[in-house]
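In response to reviewer comment 3 from the previous cycle, which asked for concrete evidence that the modeling workflow produces usable outputs, we include below a single protein chain processed end to end. The sequence was submitted unchanged, and the resulting structure tokens are shown without manual editing.
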Amino acid sequence: MPVPIAKLAQVKRKGVVPGNPACMGCPHTLGLKILGKVLGDRAVLVVPAGCTSIIAGVYPRAGINMPVLHVPFASAGAVASGIAAAYDMIGRDGVVVVWSGDGGAADIGFATLSGAAIRNENILVIVSDNEAYMNTGIQASGTTSWRARTTTTPIYGKTEEKKDLALLMLLHRVPYVATASVGYPTDFAEKLENAAAIRGFRFIHLLSPCPPGWRFDADKTAHVAKLAVETGAWILWEYINGRFRISPMSRPYADPRRRKPIEEYLRLQGRFSHVKPEDVEFIKRRIEENWRLVKELEAFYRG
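The workflow returned the following structure tokens.
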């Protein structure tokens, strides 16, 4: 059974081991540690190409303390579906986890991800979203935020808006969809527990701020991840079998008066150093629109 939240601090098992080749302040290592503590020996990871391919290390050394199968960018959903079917066939108890970056889920890997969702495969997909192809040089992806500057955007930043991958998965009518942030580990752990307790396709969109890609100091990863929630820019929510709710960590920020200024969040990130006042106003409007949509979803699923 998954580890109760209250006992997480006492669990000695780590999802990642010391000395792994991740960057300083890497958000993926934070997420993987929580994953290891909650799911323990039950988890087997399917990892499409990305930062985690490097974090895992090179044989005979290992940076991740869980079984890992490395696969090409586009195939993670299909490979995980096959493993889940094999587990069912032999009666093995386990949680097949696709641990993906945004490129491996929102862009190159979206076809097999969507196919697995439509078939309601018994897999858990976690997208550790650092909002760009960080491992190959900080190129823009479908989930890169509007006006964020990368190595492949114009000097004034990305001109397209961020793809809302969690809402896309919700439209697939799967049993479980949630958003999470590495800045709120107990919320992420609780959602892992909830997802692991049910069968079918489960999806968690995990915000994972990247120090070199977002251009902030490596000791501020958790702070930036929390600010995204506190400014209302990243909304934590959860959908379980027909029930939708805004998560307790996000609920206070449904009220705009309780949010921290979005400028505080943007100012910490060098990728937004060029934005103009009119850009900030547009971002504020988008935040309000996103909140209105999420509140409407909560009201709709409440009946």
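The two ends are 32 Å apart (CA to CA). We consider this sufficient to address the reviewer's concern, and the full set will be provided in the supplementary archive.
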